[in-house]
Amino acid sequence: MDDKEIDDTFVVHISLPPNYAETKEYPLVVMTDGVWRLSDHPKLRPLMKDGVIDDVILISIGFHYWFHLFLSYLE
Predict the structure, then answer these.
(1) Distance between CA atoms of 45 and 51, rounded to whole angstroms?
(2) Does residue 3 carry a pLDDT above 60?
(3) Hey, which of 9, 13, 35, 44 would disulfide with 70, CB 3.0 to 4.6 Å?
């Protein structure tokens, strides 16, 4: 996502609940420092699937230049 006002680009990741339905409304959880919070997406999905937490739409937003560092961190 480009921000022309600050002349920078952000990486946005969106994860839908396991049993997502277009007709249902869901709360949003927006995580800043998204590159570092991206690993939370797969950790939260089983909790939703098992009914431990309510279904939510997960959104993480982070600076694009940290994304490459994050990917190397996962390797």
Answers:
(1) 10
(2) no
(3) 35
